[in-house]
Specification:
Keywords: Signal. This protein is mainly α and 216 residues long. It has a single domain, classed as Ferritin. The chain contains 6 helices and no strands. Helix 2 runs antiparallel to helix 3 and helix 2 runs antiparallel to helix 5. It is elongated and about 50 Å long.
Length: 216
């Protein structure tokens, strides 16, 4: 058996248990219908975040912004929602590699609060704070189709883990492209900071997921 990965992001032991608490806290109720998005009709997948706690309260962005900032938030919110839906599906399964489960919990723990953050920006900018379709799927973005989501839901064991990892790698690459466009064209300091963080964090997760695929 090959040695297990010890990535910069610790996915083992007590941290996985602790992360599970994050997963639980992020599964709340949403008043917004996201059923039109692929993967948004799988259990709690359509309810990735809650604004009930102070840390999750929507806060408008400070400072100037432009159309690129609005487009970034409108596209990234549904994109993040699908990543949360994918994570929900894999975490709910039995027989999945612990490192894959830990990574899924980590992804949801990061992207759930980012959804709330971006929703706050949009509300402050006078835009819909919960866009259900903020991106042109013909242009890519790494989004999973409904067929892809159904396959992930139905798969088991290592097959499910592989589908999750390969799908999420493509998904992350799409997010990185979107974030790079924001970095090049955006104006909001907060949106630019988040875009830079997405590039850094999701590239690191792609490295981890690529390594995990070699062990399944």
């Amino acid at each position: 058996m090959p040695s297990r990965i010890t990535p910069n992001i610790n996915l083992r032991g007590s941290l996985v248990v602790a992360a599970a608490l994050v997963l639980t806290s992020l599964t709340g109720c949403s008043a917004h219908d996201t059923s039109t998005m692929p993967g948004m009709d799988h259990g709690s997948a359509g309810n990735p975040t809650t604004a009930s706690s102070p840390a999750m309260t929507r806060t408008p962005a400070a400072g100037p912004h432009n159309d690129a900032d609005v487009m970034f938030a409108q596209a990234m919110i549904p994109h993040h929602r699908q990543a949360v839906a994918m994570s929900d599906l894999i975490v709910a399964k039995d027989g999945i590699d612990a490192d894959v489960i830990g990574l899924a919990i980590q992804i949801k723990g990061a992207q759930g609060p980012e959804i709330v953050q971006m929703s706050g920006w949009l509300a402050g900018w006078g835009e819909d704070p919960s866009p259900s379709m903020g991106m042109d799927h013909d242009m890519g973005g790494g989004m999973m189709s409904q067929t892809d989501m159904d396959a992930l839901e139905q798969a088991t064991g290592d097959d499910a883990a592989r589908l999750f990892l390969t799908g999420m790698i493509t998904h992350h690459k799409g997010a990185i492209t979107m974030a790079q466009e924001e970095i090049a064209n955006g104006r909001s300091p907060e949106a630019l900071t988040l875009a830079e963080q997405i590039v850094t964090d999701q590239q690191a997760e792609i490295t981890v997921m690529t390594q995990l695929l070699t062990q399944l």
